[in-house]
Each structure stands twice: as C-alpha cells, then as structure tokens.
Specification:
322 residues, alpha/beta, Rossmann fold, N-(1-d-carboxylethyl)-l-norvaline Dehydrogenase, domain 2, six-stranded parallel beta sheet, binds nicotinamide-adenine-dinucleotide
Length: 322
C-alpha cells in the first residue's frame, strides 16, 4: 500500500469504528443529534437534567444515565450540547466529568458559548490529560434532525480529524477554523453578520412601505442587486416574495429571536473585550435583546420587522401589493 492508501485505510477504519459516546444535554438540538449517532451504530449513553428530554432520547436509542458522570464512565468521546459556557465549565470541573473520564478522552463541545469560556474549557480539558474541540453548529433543529448541520471547529488538527467521522454523521459540512475557540469565534462572527443584515433588510422594507413601494418590487430589485443577502433571499422578513420564509407562517421559527439575541450578546461581549468598534453589531444586540424581552423571544428573528414597523408608526402597513 502507498502512504496515501495507508492514510485512507486508517481514516476508513476510524470512520467505521463504533464509538462509546457520552452525550450530555439532550434538548432541542442534543436530543436528535444523540439519536442520529445511535442510529449510525454508535453506543450513546446520554444524560439531561430534564427527565422528559432523557426519556425522549431513550426512546430513540440512547442509553439513559442517571448522571453526567455515569454517562462518561466508558466513553471514548464526550459530547456536550448545553445552553451556555457556565454549564459546560461547571460540568467539566465541579461536575466531575474531566475527573471521571479515561485519560485521552475527546471532549467535543457543540454548544454555542463565549469564546473566552471555550478557551478556558480547552485549557481545563488539556490540564486533565484529555483532548478538546469546540464545534458549535448552524442549521437549527431541522438540521439536527436531518443530520445536515454545519460544524465550525476550534482545536488541534488531530482532534478535528478524530471528531470528523462523528461530525459526518451529524452534519453535511465541518470546517476546521483554527486553534481553541476558533469555532465559537466563527459562529458569533457569522451570526453578527446575520443579525445586522436582518435588521438592515427589515428597515429597508419598512422604509420602502413608507415610500409607497411594494415588498415584491423591492425584493425583485434588491435580490438581484447589491442588497442581496441570505436574510433577504432565504429568510425574507415580509410575507410574499419568498414563500418558504417564516414570515409566511406568522413568524414561527426558523431561528428564534431569543437565540439570535443570545448569539449577538456573545458577539457584543467579545467585541467589547477585544476593543473592536462593532457599532452595528452592538446596536443589533440591543435591538434583539429588546425584541426578545418584549414578547418576541419565541418568534422567528425576522419578526423584528414588525417591531421596526410599530416604532415607525402604524400607517405605513397598507401598501397594496397588487
Ligand atoms: P435546549 O434548552 O433545548 O437544550 C439544552 C439542554 O441542556 C436542556 O435539555 C437542559 O435540561 C440541559 N442541561 C442544562 N444543564 C445541564 C446539566 N448540567 N446536565 C445535563 N443537562 C443539562 O437548547 P438547544 O436549543 O438544544 O440548544 C443547545 C445549544 O445549541 C445552545 O448553546 C444553543 O445556543 C445552540 N444552538 C441552538 C440552535 C437551535 O436552533 N436551537 C441552533 C444552533 C445552536
């Protein structure tokens, strides 16, 4: 065998290998991800503080553990999918996961957390003699169910290579973004673009309405001109131009405004910590924070167009699109 064939054979063997996986955090995202790993033939032992989440995962092939520490007992890989950095760090350290795992275990954190927390987690993982990778996702619950998530990973090349066969089960694409924390950095930078662009697109539609422009006319121009962006062409905030966008189903998510507020909060915190003058990112964070607190939390993030419209005066909503 040539060297390349050797490498390919080793990779194929790793890909085919059945892993013992501990999965902690079996919520909206973690539940279906753990189920997909179990369906792919891996032995998945899961834990969640919620008895309902644990029971739902158990029905989908995950072995239920009474505690997170119990889940990691025989694990080759420990995957966490938790709300925030404090949950990850608490479980790793005080919760005893790092101490309970066998030396060299791969700790794969897929939660969206603060970049600084991700780096602290990497340090704690390494200090305990393990291997770590931050690998947050985009693609939402639909992507988690369908196994079509995109992963953004931070950590060493060897750790990324070790995780890749599992990421291939869970998603359609995995990008190694750089060293510890780089995955989280890519995630919040991308979502800062998305949050700012959704506010910009929404303001443009409301301004267009106030000038007597139909939504379809603005869409027809901007979607093929320099205003083109995902917030406009895939997640259009007004009903009509893009039939599949959440605006056409009363803003049922999609991507909930609470999650956008969370991600923009992380981006704003990172911008402040590094002294970056992210004027629009910080403003978008404030707008989404207000929108979520004002009853919009569970709506698709594109519903912010309604808050902008309300703040602009109610008389501009009746432009006849015919
Ligand atoms: P979720 O609230 O549905 O799930 C989190 C789960 O963690 C809950 O079931 C909770 O009981 C469990 N949990 C919390 N602390 C725990 C502990 N100490 N031990 C065991 N279980 C614990 O949230 P989600 O929507 O699944 O999101 C998870 C992560 O994925 C978040 O960081 C989120 O920002 C990120 N994310 C979510 C989406 C999405 O569309 N939902 C998209 C991309 C990224």
């Amino acid at each position: 065998m040539s060297r390349t064939e050797d490498t390919e054979a080793a990779e194929a063997a790793e890909a085919a290998e059945v892993k013992n996986i501990a999965f902690v955090g079996l919520g909206n995202m973690g539940g279906p991800m753990a189920a997909n790993l179990a369906a792919a033939g891996h032995r998945v032992v899961g834990h969640d503080l919620s008895a309902d989440a644990l029971a739902a995962a158990a029905e989908r092939g995950v072995v239920a553990a009474a505690s997170a520490v119990e889940a990691v007992a025989d694990a080759d890989v420990v995957i966490t999918m938790l709300p925030a950095g404090r949950h990850v760090l608490a479980l790793y350290r005080d919760g005893g996961l790092l101490a309970a795992a066998a030396p060299g275990t791969l700790f794969l954190d897929c939660s969206t957390i603060d970049v600084a927390d991700a780096r602290t987690a990497h340090e704690a993982v390494a200090a305990a003699g393990h291997r770590g990778l931050d690998a947050p996702v985009s693609g939402g619950v639909v992507g988690a169910e369908a196994g079509t998530l995109t992963f953004m990973a931070g950590g060493g090349a060897a750790e990324f290579a070790a995780a890749e066969p599992l990421l291939a089960v869970l998603g359609k694409r995995a990008v190694h973004c750089g060293a510890a924390g780089a995955g989280q950095a890519a995630k919040i930078c991308n979502n800062m673009i998305l949050g700012v662009s959704m506010v910009a697109v929404s303001e443009a539609f409301v301004l267009g309405e106030s000038l007597g422009l139909t939504a379809q006319a603005l869409f027809d121009v901007a979607s093929t001109a320099s205003g083109q962006c995902w917030a406009l062409t895939a997640n259009c905030p007004v009903p009509g131009p893009v039939p599949a966008s959440p605006a056409n189903r009363d803003y049922r998510p999609g991507f909930a405004a609470a999650l956008m507020a969370k991600d923009l909060g992380l981006a704003a915190g990172a911008a402040r910590a590094t002294g970056v003058d992210a004027a629009l990112g910080l403003r978008a964070a404030e707008l989404y924070e207000e929108f979520a607190a004002d009853g919009g939390a569970e709506r698709d993030f594109s519903a912010i167009v309604q808050a902008i419209r309300e703040r602009s005066g109610a008389d501009i909503t009746g432009v006849d699109a015919t």
